[in-house]
Amino acid sequence: MQPPSPEAQPLILEGVGLTLPSAAGPVEILRGVDMSVAQGERVSVIGPSGSGKSSLIALAAGLERPTSGAVRLFGQDLARLNEDGRARLRRGRVSLVFQAFHLLPNMTAEENVAAPLEIAGVVGATDHAREWLDRVGLKARGHHYPHQLSGGEQQRVALARALAARPSLLFADEPTGNLDGANAALVADMMFDLIAQTGAALVMVTHDPVLAARADRQVRMGEGRVVA
Fold this sequence. Notes:
Radius of gyration: 18 Å
Strand content: 25-35%
């Protein structure tokens, strides 16, 4: 079987390295990372704290620039794009969910979900937001502000916001890290169910071995490298 072309793969990392300055001198965060993600594939990134997992997400999503190597997002080398170009490439194709919910505090749940759709020029953004809040079980909470929602509810709003644009690739950095066991399980179930429905690929950083095992493949990081 022929391997898929770069354009068919949402994400390819080739020899990616990241070195950051510090008071004690340069610090290598990532070292020669090779990794690829196929369309619809669900990949979990695991490893101890400080192994470079969140930095890997930031580079893969084009939020940081690598010191060496290449990051190809939907076949495009991110090093060839400026910040605006990277933002345009992500728009409508890439979404992110973080451990911290990052909801806008002065907007209702419905407005938080609708805002990125409105920015992208989606017709009927409010209707789409209501539909996605219904899909995460929060239809009756659409007019509540983040401070009026529990942590689990806030993360479900964040998940609805991320998936409402029907991205081809979802990055999730410790999506259940701030939740108790029951809410973590609920959010995880919803995330995997909705990803299956939309056909999006998933790259998920997690410390939870049970959650990691739900992915199609696990990538283990250690000291800035892929070790397994």
